[in-house]
């Protein structure tokens, strides 16, 4: 389980009442315009099946839906659907136990992550996020998978919107060698890491599999610096998660993370390794 709902604490993410409400509003607006699903779907460039699933609250509405629907249903409908879609992304698809940390992420001025189980959620391309969700146990419904993947993609706007936030990610090489989702998905992951690592505010380091001196034996960790320069930590287990605020405990995590950064590959060596791994696929 990574720190954003890619694994298995609790049974989340359920189809929310707000998603069902959005679908009911879309249906009402469509019917008010005198259109059947068969008439409406091609005008907004989606399949009839997809529109039906959205109206039933079983699919997360795509970002382009309000604009396309506005052309067909009018400007008032566009405003209503835009506001409704925006409210959905705030919590739907995020596990309840993770939402507190997600709020901390939103305003952090520094955000560090060490992952030994999966690619951090903020760096997951859609195909990888979907592959993890499809392999969850107990299995998720299609609606739950859609919610989870969309929520994770929405969180990734932090990398582009918060240009003054320093993001640092340390990822175990074994995570890539596992090839979760298959070779094609792994290639997409590597290309995405290379692309995101080129951002000025993002640093990605790969931890070599063969590393005798390793400070990450206790498992994954996340650290965030708040706007008032307070550091907080976050950790997870199979059936537990914990936001860490006690200064003495956060200090321990910061010491460990600093050591991990010195043990992982440098930026240049990480890029070289990623390119070699991509070439081997």
UniProtKB/TrEMBL annotation:
PROSITE patterns, per the entry: HTH_CROC1
Gene3D superfamilies reported in the protein's UniProt record: lambda repressor-like DNA-binding domains
Residues covered by the HTH cro/C1-type domain: 26-61
GO MF terms held by the record: DNA binding
Domain of life: Bacteria
Identification of the protein by name: Transcriptional regulator
Organism annotation: Streptomyces niveus
Phylogenetic placement of the source organism: Bacteria, Bacillati, Actinomycetota, Actinomycetes, Kitasatosporales
């Amino acid at each position: 389980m990574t720190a954003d709902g890619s694994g298995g604490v609790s049974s989340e993410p359920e189809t929310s009442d707000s998603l069902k409400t959005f679908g009911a509003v879309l249906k009402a607006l469509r019917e008010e315009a005198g259109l059947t699903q068969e008439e409406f779907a091609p005008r907004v460039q989606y399949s009839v099946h997809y529109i039906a699933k959205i109206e039933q609250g079983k699919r997360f509405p795509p970002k382009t839906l309000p604009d396309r629907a506005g052309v067909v249903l009018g400007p008032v409908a566009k405003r209503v659907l835009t506001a409704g879609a925006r409210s959905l992304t705030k919590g739907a698809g995020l596990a309840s136990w993770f939402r507190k940390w997600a709020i901390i992420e939103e305003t952090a001025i520094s955000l560090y992550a060490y992952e030994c189980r999966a690619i951090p959620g903020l760096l997951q391309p859609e195909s990888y996020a979907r592959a993890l969700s499809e392999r969850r146990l107990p299995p998720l419904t299609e609606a739950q998978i859609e919610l989870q993947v969309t929520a994770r993609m929405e969180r990734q706007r932090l990398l582009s919107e918060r240009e003054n936030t320093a993001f640092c990610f340390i990822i175990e090489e074994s995570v890539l060698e596992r090839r979760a989702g298959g070779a094609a998905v792994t290639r997409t992951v590597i290309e995405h890491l290379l692309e995101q690592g080129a951002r000025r505010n993002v640093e990605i380091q790969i931890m070599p599999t063969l590393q005798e001196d390793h400070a990450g034996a206790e498992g994954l960790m996340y650290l965030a610096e708040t706007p008032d320069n307070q550091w907080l930590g976050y950790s997870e287990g199979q059936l537990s998660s914990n936001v860490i605020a006690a200064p003495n405990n956060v200090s321990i995590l910061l010491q460990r993370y600093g050591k991990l950064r010195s043990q992982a590959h440098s930026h240049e060596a990480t890029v070289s390794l990623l390119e070699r791994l991509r070439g081997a696929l």
